[in-house]
Design brief:
This protein is α/β, with parallel strands linked by helices. It contains 13 helices and 17 strands. The model has no long low-confidence stretch (mean pLDDT about 95). The chain binds zinc ion (ZN).
């Protein structure tokens, strides 16, 4: 997404939803709204310096042209690392603060996978972070940001932020305990007098930046100490839950054994290839799970999408019904595994497919449904290759290619947790698989160069 100069439009897009909500609410109050740049990219390596600086400077130029302003609202992911900027959004916020001065309100909505750095906290007045993973609450949090902006501008409250560092790394789905209870407690704490907002920044463990890790953020009405007390208390609960908060991961063969041990009943198992999630920055073309499926001669298994623009183009050239030998996947590097050489049949071709996510529609690119083993839907191994790097958000990533997900024993998805909201209603059971890959869930093995702080589980107790 790259939308310049307030041309975003009314249709909610992935990461454009808060903008649409804030605009509607501001206009209802007859406030003048001036919009700047809106941009989003599926993560990979560090953002290049030239790209980051150009986009940042465009936002700052838009803001400078709009001055004077009463408030600046920003919707930021919060984990961007750019060449020379270990905390890109911290740098952006600091420059926004320098531009507007100390008295203009700066409010943010952040993804819970943000790095909640000192620079961000020092630069903004208030931040509200997603509470749910998968991120099904983007709109609710945007409403809360706007509510707090209205109350602050009216002089009714004066937001102050307090932070507690949990000293932890991990992935914490909120669809299971103990996170369900922790989210409920955060919402209960927000009802206490003087407490404006309570957030848990899970952090983004694959971001090699000094302030990586999990932190609690509490926004109070001018009561920093109360905020700190709540943040410490909630942080202690998160720390005490550390062994249960990270979901159980199973190996590839363990997951496949589990699937094959049970007779098909019309509902597929969903196997999440968590280490190859493009949303984390992985290629989305790893083949470790597919190799095991083929080596074991299993059937009734489908995967979508496998990012392979070359295979997709070749399939489109060959056309539906074509059968030939093809090499798929495993192209980006060692973390993608070896490519797979198979006889394929092109079952379907679809251009510009989309899948729902978080109240918006996300692009899937062009899809080619390839049958790589088996001869009927019941014993086939089917792979949907595409040319747009994106994770599996919803069963429509299969259906869009013409595949009926209910006909398979198991579906393999390239996602860590965002698939959950879409797939849970059709899944017989969801298994988090720890295959090899660039987004490995083994936090102890992440090859940090810039993180020197002690963090669990890399050390047993970072607080000592
Ligand atoms: Zn996130």
């Amino acid at each position: 997404m790259l939308v310049r100069g307030g041309k975003h439009g009314d249709k909610p897009s992935l990461f454009g939803l808060p903008l649409v909500i804030w605009r509607e609410r501001a206009k209802a109050l007859q406030w003048e709204v001036i919009e700047g740049l809106a941009a989003f990219a599926t993560p990979a390596g560090d953002t290049t310096r030239g790209t980051y600086e150009a986009l940042r400077d465009e936002i700052l130029a838009d803001l400078r042209a709009a001055m004077p302003v009463d408030a600046v609202l920003l919707n930021l992911h919060g984990a961007m690392i750019a060449d020379g900027y270990p905390d890109a959004e911290g740098d952006l916020l600091a420059q926004v603060r320098e531009l507007v001065g100390p008295d203009v309100l700066i409010a943010c909505e952040l993804d819970l996978h943000c790095h909640l750095t000192g620079l961000k906290v020092a630069s903004a007045d208030l931040m509200v972070i997603f509470k749910e993973y998968p991120h099904v609450d983007v709109a609710e949090r945007a409403q809360e940001v706007f509510d707090l902006v209205v109350r602050t501008l009216a002089g009714e409250v004066h937001p102050v932020m307090s932070v507690h560092d949990c000293g932890m790394l991990g992935v914490y789905p909120t669809t299971r305990e103990p996170m369900i209870s922790i989210v409920a407690r955060m919402q209960a704490l927000e009802k206490e007098p003087g407490v404006l907002s309570v957030s848990l920044a899970h952090g983004f463990p694959w971001g090699d930046t000094p302030e990586v890790g999990t932190r609690v953020l509490v926004v109070t009405d001018r009561d920093e100490q109360k905020g700190l007390d709540i943040a410490r208390d909630l942080g202690q609960q998160v720390w005490d839950s550390r062994f249960a908060i990270v979901p159980p991961f199973v190996g590839i063969d363990e997951a496949l054994d589990h699937v094959m041990a049970q007779a098909p009943d019309g509902r597929p198992f969903v196997l999440a290839d968590t280490a190859d999630n493009p949303g984390i920055g992985s290629p989305g073309d790893s083949t470790f799970m597919l190799h095991r499926v083929l080596e074991r001669g299993l059937g009734g298994i489908a995967l979508s999408p496998l990012w392979d623009p070359v295979a997709t183009a070749v399939a489109f050239d060959a056309g539906v019904g074509a059968r030939f030998a093809m090499r798929i996947g495993g192209k980006l590097g060692p973390a993608s595994g070896d490519p797979i050489d198979v006889q394929i049949e092109v079952k379907a071709l679809v251009q510009r497919a989309r899948q729902p996510f978080g109240g918006t529609m996300a692009s899937l690119g062009d899809l080619a449904w390839l049958r790589i083993a088996g001869d009927s839907d019941d014993n086939a191994v089917d792979v949907v290759v595409n040319n747009y790097r994106v994770q599996s958000f919803h069963p429509d990533c299969f259906r869009a290619a013409g595949i009926d997900p209910s006909r398979y024993r198991a579906l393999i998805v390239k996602s860590t947790q965002h698939f959950h909201a879409g797939f849970a209603p059709i899944a017989r059971e969801i298994l988090y698989v720890s295959a090899p890959g660039s987004a490995s869930m083994d936090m102890t093995g992440l090859p940090y160069r810039n993180v020197t702080r002690a963090l669990w589980p890399r050390v047993s107790d970072p607080h000592q």
